[in-house]
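Late entry, evening session. Most of the bench is empty. Finally got around to the prediction I had been postponing all week. Sequence below, unchanged from the version circulated by S.P.
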Amino acid sequence: MDDLISARWVKSSYSGDNGGECVEVAFLSAGRMGIRDSKWARGPVLWFGAAEWDAFRESVRRGGFGGSAAI
């Protein structure tokens, strides 16, 4: 997936600066999103299509997954 090579990764504002649990996202082509662990930048990447990402964001906004967050 060539998008991942040139992707601009952004660390979540909820991921503090202490080197703990950090999540990064990248906006990819065709509305897709990539998600990775910032401590393992060369590790696996999860990617989601636009519809899946929108459904995930809406679920988080409604309090799904045990909490709420701004995405």
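Two things to note before I forget:
The longest strand covers residues 23-27.
Residues 2-12+21-62 form one domain.
Will write this up properly tomorrow.
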